[in-house]
Amino acid sequence: MQLLRDIAAAIDHRETEIERLKSIIKQLQRMQFDRSSERIDPDQFVLGLEDLRTQNEHKQRVCAVRRLRRWIR
Question: pTM above the 0.70 mark?
Answer without folding.
Answer: no
